[in-house]
Each structure stands twice: as structure tokens, then as C-alpha cells.
Amino acid sequence: MNIVTIAGVTVIAAFLAVLIRRYHPEYSMAIGLITGILILGMLIIQLVPIFGRLQILLNSTSIPSEYGSVLFKALGISLLAQLSADACRDAGENAMAEKAELAGKVFLLILALPLFEKIAELAVQLMNGGETG
Amino acid sequence: MDVDLIFKIAAIGIIVAVLNQLLIRSGREEQAMLTTLAGLIVVLSMIVSEISELFRTVKTVFGL
Hints:
The structure holds 2 protein chains of 2 kinds.
Chain A: H1 3-21, H2 25-60, H3 65-90, H4 94-132
Chain B: H1 4-25, H2 29-62
């Protein structure tokens, strides 16, 4: 799958969705959702080697390896939340789209909270070191 | 992950629309509604299996 295929598929799917929207809006939403899912799946399969490279790069630095995995998890949560929110927004349900995005933000916060705690600990250590020294 | 699914769903939508019009013109509103419902269920079952596959891929790749 290359960029030409994906561009053609999205344009044809948009045409079909507009064609069917007059008779059955629910099928139009189904076409939009399935197109998004197929393209996202293809892109994730393409992303796997890039993630391996990034992991090797992160391991070669002095950064702990769990920070990299937090980064990848945050990317996955964002992609899923964005997919569901866009599907809801296409169907005209803005309230549900907002809730999906809010859920994504909450889970990102839960994921990132241990890192915030580490930064706070570091700041406290630095301040104590400044007082004693 | 194949592209045929988009064309399948579009074809089901067009067929259901045509059948719906045909059945409403011949005065069978109940059967027209049942046709719409059946098409919707077929499409939804196709979408749900794809969604589960995507979620599984995301879980394995991103380590969620």
C-alpha cells in the first residue's frame, strides 16, 4: 500500500459516501468509519519498523526505556480517541465526539501522571540541595 | 485489511435503497423496513469485526 493507493481509496470512498447519504445516511457513516479503520490499520502496519528503529534510538541514549513506551502508548490512545471522535462528528453527534476526546485526555493524564511525579520529586530534590548548599 | 469492504458496503447500501423504493411503491412498507434493518445488520457485523481487528493491532503495536 503506497500513498497513491490510499489517496485514490479515500477519494472513491468519499464519493460513495456522498452518493449514498441521500438515501441512507447510516450507510454513509459506515463507509466513512470503515475507510478510516482500513487506512489506520495499513498505516499502523507501516509504522511497526519505524517504532523498532525509534526504540533502538531511545535505548542508545541514557533515557530510561519506560519513557519511550509511555510515548508509544500515548500515541495509540490518541489515535483511537481521534478515530471514534471523528466517526461521531461525521454522524452529527458532536456531544459524543467531545466525550470521546475527553476520555482520551483523561487516559493520557493517567498515563503521564507518574512522569509528573518524577519531575516534582526532581524539583524538590533540587530545591533542598539549593537550601543546604 | 482489504479495500473491497468499502465497495461491499456501498453496494449493500445501493441495493437496499433500490429494494426499499420498490417495496414502498408496491405498498409493502413493513417488508421495506425489514429490508433496511437486515442490510444494516449485515453492514454492522462487517464493521464490528474490522473494528475488533484494528483494536487488536493497536494493542499489540502500541503496547496498550
